[in-house]
Amino acid sequence: MADAEPLSDPPAHRRRRFYLPGGLSSRLLLATALVVVVANLLTIPVLLASRQREWLSDRIAAGESASFVVNAAPSGRVNEQLKTKILASAGLAAVGMETDGVYRVVLRAAHMPKTVYRIDLRERDFLSELVEPMETLFGGGDRMVLIFDRPHYTSGQLVWVLVPDAPLSKILLATLRELLIGGLLTSIMAGIIVYLSLNFLLVRPMQRITRSMERFRANPDDPTARLTPSGRNDEIGRAETELDLMQADLRAALASRARLAALGEGVAKINHEMRNMLTSAQLASERLAASPDPVVARTLPRLERALDRAVRLAADVLTFGRSVEPSPAPRPTPLRAAAEAAAEDAQLATGGVALALDVDDRAQVLADPDQLHRILVNLMRNAREAIDADPPRSGKGAVTVSLRVRDGFSVVRVADDGPGLPERAKANLFQPFLGSARRDGTGLGLSIARELAQAHGGDLTLAESGPSGAAFDLRLPGAPEPLPNSAGAEARA
Questions:
Q1: Are 378 and 311 found together in one domain?
Q2: How many angstroms separate the CA atoms of 177 and 26, rounded?
Q3: Domain of 252?
Q4: Which of 47, 101, 211, 358 is most buried, judged by most C-beta within 10 A?
């Protein structure tokens, strides 16, 4: 049997270095408890140092009091019995002073210990004060501490006392026990208060946002999934507001997509019949081709081109319903001829809304001819309908097509002298079912035109809009060479 392959390490995003509780509330409770406990632990050395300094100062004061008794005695001497009582009552083993540079032992026990360590209260820094209580607690028992300080109640330069540190160790141990118990109770109370506060201010609003997101994901149409912003002015309030706006935008997008799906379903039902009718029209045009009438001969090519485009559009509209457009096949296309053909299909006429061309006969653009035709027809038809719907113009106006080359792009401008676009149409200009300027419009024309332009690697944008009219810029990559003079005349014909 072949050796088994070693197991691969789990992905980095699945590896967990340490365990944490699952919920935000649990993690918050744990973090709060740890913070409060650490804060209390940091205060313990400071409190122990304060308690030790207080005890040491009391011992210095007791030594100075004992020196008063000795100095008050005749000849500054006391007998051994009184000396023992004084030292025992003050808890001291020896007392000494320095006066005028002379060191003097005021009181001294009969038996002096050997294990002694020093604490000089005159030369202590903060770090020393924190370390010395630990040395007293864990340095071993049955030791003596020699304390130095400046006199507070007597004259002289120095006073020192020798005392056993066992009482100090007991006091520090009791203080440590009290601090630990008090710190534990404080941690519990502070942790509960902080936890409840943060849970009310942060966790519950976040849970509310999360539940809204979960309900919206399960059913976007559920009215209870909508999150009503609380009106807070902090990051939570901003998150609520942005989530509410995002949900509204997604509902609008889903509604638009549903309408597109319904449109595709409806078109699928009539597409077969419409194609049959167009096939019949094509057969009729073939019969007309045999007619000797010169008028029929002149108009028949345009009729055939219109029928061919209608058949292709009938097939392509299903593709749009599936949100997929056929890939363009760009080639140099004479712009003037394309604009005239589009104006005919958009029903521009000399007596009403007329076409005005500011394009050279030989000018070309790099585009798919059929898709360019659809773009221009949509733009021209929208311009004509806007002018026709404006009573002061009485159906009279002009649609101007011009061309300029800029930064390697051919920019085709389609401008009209109509009333311009209303503000509500500008906000959603290229959105299906939302960007129409007419009440009965669907807004699909501009959406389709822009999608076709972007498929070419260009774009369709609103250049300007106002009381004097609107203008759209169609940007197409490339700038083909103009046609020869004879070819330009043939294309125009």
A1: no
A2: 29
A3: 228-324
A4: 47
pLDDT tens digits, one per residue of 88-113? 888 888 888 888 777 788 887 767 66
Instruction: Give me the sign of the Cα torsion angle 48, 53, 54, 60.
Output: positive
Q: What is the DSSP letter of 14?
A: T
Q: Which residues of 403-437 are buried (b: 16+ CB within 10 A; e: fewer)?
A: beeeeebbbbbbbbbbbbbeeebeebbbbbbbbbb
Read off the amino acid at residue 251.
R
Query: Measured over all CA atoms, what is the biggest interatomic distance in the chain, rounded to whole angstroms?
Result: 160
For residues 370 and 377, give the distance between their C-alpha atoms in angstroms, rounded to a whole number. 11
Strand order in the sheet with 469-477: 353-358, 397-406, 409-416, 469-477, 459-466
376: in domain: yes
CB hemisphere CA count around 412 (13 angstroms): 32
Q: Are 49 and 117 in contact (CB under 8 A)?
A: no
Q: What is the DSSP letter of 118?
A: E
pLDDT of residue 154: 75
Please tell me whether residue 470 adopts helix, strand or coil conformation. Answer: strand
What does the pLDDT look like over 442-457, one tens digit per residue?
567 788 889 899 999 9
Residue 162 sits at φ, ψ, to 5 deg, of -115, 120
Give the integer Cα–Cα distance in Å for 30 and 36: 10
Q: Indicate the pLDDT class of residue 22, thresholds 50, 70 and 90.
A: low
Question: Domain boundary at 309, 324, 339, which?
Answer: 324
Residue 383 and residue 342 in contact, taking contact as beta carbons nearer than 8 Å: no
Q: Say how far apart CA 13 and CA 23 lie, in whole Å.
A: 18
